[in-house]
Each structure stands twice: as C-alpha cells, then as structure tokens.
Design brief:
With about 550 residues, the protein is α+β, with helices and mostly antiparallel strands. It folds into 5 domains: about 5-85, no CATH class; about 90-255, no CATH class; about 265-330, Nuclear Transport Factor 2, Chain: A, CATH 3.10.450; about 385-470, Nuclear Transport Factor 2, Chain: A (Roll), CATH 3.10.450; about 485-545, Roll (Nuclear Transport Factor 2, Chain: A). The chain has 17 helices and 19 strands. The protein has helices at about 5-15, 20-30, 55-85, 115-125, 135-150, 170-190, 205-215, 220-230, 235-240, 245-255, 265-275, 325-330, 335, 340-345, 390-400, 460-465, 485-495; strands at about 35-40, 45-50, 90-95, 100-105, 110-115, 160-165, 195-200, 285-290, 295-305, 305-315, 320, 405-415, 420-430, 430-440, 445-450, 505-510, 515-525, 525-535, 540-545. It is flat, with a radius of gyration of 37 Å. The two termini are about 45 Å apart.
C-alpha cells in the first residue's frame, strides 16, 4: 500500500468519524454578531466583518469543539487502522521453498514473501507477493500451493508440505491450522498430488524468530529443526536447515541418529559410481527414504533411453545398490551385438543340409562368458568387512541387549543384492530377534521380532536361563536409554511447545515390543497431548492430540 493510498484511507476514516459540521457548531454556540463597517478603498466599498470582543470567545469555543471532534475521529480512525494493519498470525509454508504470510485478525494478507531463494522464485510469479496483499488467507494459500505443484515441488509421494501457524492466541492458531490443512489438501487432491501435509502451531517466540532470521528459514522450519536438535544436540542447526521438510520429518521419525548427506551429495555419489558425473545429458531424480530400515537416498539416473536406480546410504554416502560405470557398459554392448549379424551368413550355408550344424554355432552364446564377468561383483567382498563379532555387536546394540543376555540361534555371512551381509538370529526373554547387518559398516538393514513358539523345543530353553538373571525384568541394563528428560524434550519439540507452556505432565517408562518406551502426556492451550517415545533413540513412535475435556 502506497503512502497516498494510506492517506486517502485515513482521510475517509476521519470524514466518517468527524463530519464537516461547522455551521451546526456555530448555531449551537448561540448568536454572536459583530458590527459591519463600510470602508472606502480605492473608490471601492469593501464590506468587512469586525468581530466584537464577545465574539472572540465563542470562536475559540467553536475551534475547541471542532478540535475535540477531530481528536475523537482521529482516535477512531487510528484504532481502525491499527486493528486492520496489525499482524495477528504468521503463516509459514515449507517444502524446500519457504514462504511466509502475515495476516490480520480478519484473515487478510498484510504481506507475503519468499524466505529463501526457491521461495522467492515462486513469489516472483505473484509480483513478489504484492499481488496477494489484501486477499483472504485461504485464497492466497491456494495460489501459492498451486504454484508449488506447477514447479514440481509436490510431485513425489514422499514429498511433504509443512504448514506452521504462529499466533499468541492458541484457539485461533488451532482453527487456522485446521482450515489451512483442509485448503492445502484440497489443492493437492485437485492436482492429483500424493504429497503429504504436515502442520503445527506455535506461540509467539522472539528467540525462534531471531533464529529463523539468522539462518534464512521460516519460523515453522526453525521449529522443525529444533525438534531434531532436541533428539540429537550434536547436529548443527545450519546443516539441518539445508534439508527439505520431508528429510527433516523422516529424520525426526527415526530419532535423528546422524546428519544426512543431503540430496545433492547423494546425486554426486550415485553419478560418480555410475560414471556419468561429466555427462551433461544425464537427468537425475533424488528421493529421500530416511525412514527405511536402512536410511538412504534413492537416485534415479536417466541415461540415453534407459533408467538406472541407485541406493545411497543417507549417512555415509556409500552407494550400495545399482549398476557401476553405465557409460562404458552402454558402449560395450554395441560391438558385441555386431557379431550376431555376422552369424547370419550361416543361413547361406543352408543350401547344404550339412549347414544345419550351424545351430551348433549357437554355442557362441557360451562365449557370453562375458556375462561371467559379472563375478566381478564378487570382487566387492574386497570391500570393508567388519566381521561376525562386530556384526553381532551392532545387532545387540540396536536391540538394547548385551551378549550375556541372549542365546544365538543363527549367525551367517551372506552375499545378497550385490552386497555382503550378516544374517543373525537370537533369543531373549521368549522373543526372537532377526537382524540383517551390512558387512561394510555394521548398519542395520532389516530387523524383526516375534514371540518364540512353544513347540520350538530348544528355543524355549533359553528363556528360563535369562529369567534367572535379575536384569531380565529390566533389559535396559546395558541398553542405550535416552532417559525421561530427553524423552520429554522430544515430545515437547514435536508439539512445538516449551516446558513452561504445558501442565499436568506425566512420564512413564515401559518395555514394549522388545524395546524401551516412554509414555508421555501433557496439556496446553485446551489440548491434551499423548506421545510414545522410543527409549533408545528418542524417535516418536505414536502421538495424538485431542481437546482437553
């Protein structure tokens, strides 16, 4: 809004609050007339009103009355202006582009801006946000999400958009959260997008605002970063802020064990492995899968007419799945296919029935021992092998158990999907644990737990052996346990609240499904929150929010 438009708006407010009623003011002040004196000036008669002394006091009174009216009208106009220009709520929309809207109490957009570079590109289509000023909030959000869809930010099923509402009024924040979630979901359904919708509410926090400004992110994304930091304080705010919303969300779900390498580093790792880093025509698509049993980035490379899929470890950058050196592999088949036409002369030998031995030339496929070059992957066992003992230790650490507490059923070294693995099984307290451990770095690829079947004979024996130990009722001895304080911090961070904002906090430590869990409950702003936290990692296993009756 320009200064001129602002002046016109204020003038209208004053007109309504203090109408031009000078004659009426004068009439109410009573009749006070002066003498009329005729003056001769340059042969002309000029009529001049000379106020009497008594007239001067009511003129002052009229001025005072008018001043009071103007002050009252100005105050009313000022109140109107303040209520319509004051920021009531700050709305953040984050994918990788981050966009921030400030709205008044009537849900009208006061300002809109792209917080980061990608957000600025989106807002450039809308006059850098000026086109949305004055519009209803849901209309503006509809337009922004539509632009995000058109630019391809919400194409993948794993992609997600985060809606954050920052407001000092918790009831209004909750209402806007529900309203905007429905609006965004409607846009995504219309666009046939399968992206997820995340939402959160926050109280006004000057520290969070300062943090967001320092790192060039929205307050909503800053709150999400702080959730990850609550789980693992060794991570850096700056590194986490560079991740997308879907990466942050998945990282929090698995307990934020380490800093992911990021999409760009995953692409470079895959292309280096594939030998396409210097090829400009390669199209790469990177999809984070941080909540897989082995957190990874799925990289799809399109080279020529083919697509190649790769899996890159999300924390180490190791490429553990996919075809190596696809450029040379794509070039070498060409000469191998040319001999096939040369074998076609064999049919020229068909005039002689004896040429039928030509089919015996089909053993030439046996020359395809070239595919026997595939054993080269067997050379990959030359990659780092942590050994069986280290693999067992990795499985036990993940399960939160010690070697003295379990009975081993199976421990085998295997080679599967182009990688060396260890298949491990052990029993603890009538529960069987199955683990697949990557031999190169000891990471857990897959794990399952199930009750031991009573018909298992020898398998049921280990349970009594463990029950004779006092630790069996508390398997957390030797287990990584984050403790009640960190579990509470994880729940509060996910809810976007501080300890001072909640009441009736309850925290219970339990052992379920072969792991330590913390059951946490608290209330805030008329809402009741319930959380289940993984006791060894701090990951949020389950959460609910209901109206506090």
């Amino acid at each position: 809004m320009t200064d001129r438009e602002l002046e016109e708006m204020l003038a209208k407010a004053l007109d309504h609050a203090a109408p031009d009623d000078l004659e009426g003011v004068l009439s109410r002040c009573g009749e006070r007339r002066g003498n009329v004196i005729m003056l001769e000036q340059n042969n002309q008669t000029v009529s001049t009103r000379k106020p009497a002394k008594k007239f001067r006091w009511w003129m002052g009174l009229a001025a005072a009355c008018l001043a009071v009216a103007l002050v009252a009208g100005g105050a009313a106009g000022g109140m109107w202006y303040q209520s319509n220009r004051a920021v009531a709520s700050v709305i953040s929309l984050d994918v990788n582009p981050s966009i921030e809207l400030k709205v008044n109490q009537n849900e009208r957009v006061l300002s809109c801006r792209g917080v980061n570079k990608d957000g600025a590109v989106i807002m450039a289509e809308m006059g850098n946000g000026r086109d949305l000023e004055g519009s209803k909030l849901d209309v503006a959000v509809n337009a922004i999400v539509g632009a995000l869809v058109r630019h391809g930010y919400l194409d993948d099923i794993s992609s997600a958009i985060l809606i954050s509402v920052e407001d000092s009024n918790s009831d209004r924040a909750a209402r806007l959260q529900a309203q905007l979630t429905a609006t965004v979901d409607g846009v995504l359904q219309t666009a046939a997008s399968q992206a997820g919708v995340l939402s959160q509410t926050m109280g006004v926090d000057a520290g969070l605002d300062s943090q967001a400004q320092q790192y060039g992110v929205s307050t909503g994304k800053a709150a999400l970063v702080n959730q990850a930091l609550a789980l693992n304080p060794s991570l850096s705010f700056e590194g986490l802020a560079a991740l997308s919303v879907e990466e942050l969300h998945d990282l929090i779900r698995i307990g934020a064990p380490a800093m992911p390498i990021g999409r760009e580093a995953a692409r470079i790792a895959a292309e280096t492995y594939a030998g396409t880093l210097a090829v400009d025509s390669v199209i790469a698509d990177v999809d984070p899968e941080l909540d897989d049993p082995r957190p990874n980035y799925e990289v799809e490379l399109q080279y020529g007419a083919r697509e190649y899929d790769y899996r890159v470890d999300a924390f180490t950058g190791e490429v553990y799945s996919g075809q190596k050196d696809i450029v040379s592999a794509a070039q070498s088949p060409a000469p191998q296919t040319t001999p096939a036409p040369q074998s076609t002369p064999a049919p020229q030998a068909t005039p002689a029935p004896q040429a039928t031995p030509a089919p015996q030339a089909t053993p030439k496929p046996q020359t395809t021992p070239a595919p026997q070059a595939t054993p080269k992957p067997q050379a990959t066992p030359a990659v780092t092998d942590i050994g069986l003992d280290a693999a067992k230790s990795a499985a036990l650490k993940h399960a939160g158990l010690s070697a003295s507490q379990v009975n081993w059923v199976k421990a085998e070294r295997d080679y599967d999907d182009g990688r060396l693995e260890y298949e491990l099984e052990f029993i603890y307290n009538s529960t069987e644990y199955d683990y697949t451990i990557l031999a190169s770095n000891g990471s857990v690829i897959k794990y399952e737990t199930e009750p031991v079947r009573s018909s298992g004979g020898s398998q049921s024996n280990p349970a009594p052996q463990t029950t004779s130990r006092p630790q069996t009722q508390d398997p957390s001895s030797g287990t990584a346990d984050i403790g009640a304080d960190r579990a509470k911090a994880a729940a509060l961070a996910h809810a976007g609240l501080s300890a001072s904002q909640v009441s009736r906090m309850k925290c219970e430590r339990d052992y379920e499904h072969g792991r330590i869990e913390y059951e946490i409950e608290f209330t805030s702003g008329g809402w009741e929150y319930e959380y289940t936290i993984d006791g060894s990692t701090g990951a949020i296993l389950d959460h609910e929010r209901d109206r506090d009756d």
